[in-house]
Amino acid sequence: SADMAARRRIIEQSGSDIVISIHMNSFEDDPSVSGPLTLFMAGSQQGQKLAQAVIDSLNAALGTNGSAHARDNLFILKSGSQPCVLVECGYLSNKEEESRLKQPDYQKKLAEAICDGAADFLSRK
Hints:
By secondary structure, the chain is α/β, with parallel strands linked by helices. 47% of the residues lie in helices and 19% in strands. It has four helices and four strands, in the order αββαββαα. The protein has a four-stranded mixed beta sheet. β2, α2 (45-62) and β3 form a beta-alpha-beta unit. α2 (45-62) crosses α4 (104-124). The N and C termini lie far apart (34 Å).
């Protein structure tokens, strides 16, 4: 789509050290599934380290047990040469989590945890 092409162009032209793409998840087959997860490009050592740093920070801040997963079929993860992570903040298909995700204080906690994870990764580079 044109939107995805624009995102790729922004990433490629940004000159950034890292890319973090933030999303909300959904899993209609099991509405009890909840919690954050991070995705990185399969084979990217730096992407994996960034994904792990971000999920560790989210888990510490939220008391969750999310994990980092490799993917090789996501357009955003294939954009640019810098480490790229897709962060799924939680599941909108889980009513309790959807309610938390709508709260400004929870959104701030998520943003701070993602930022802390990125800062941790950058300090170890």
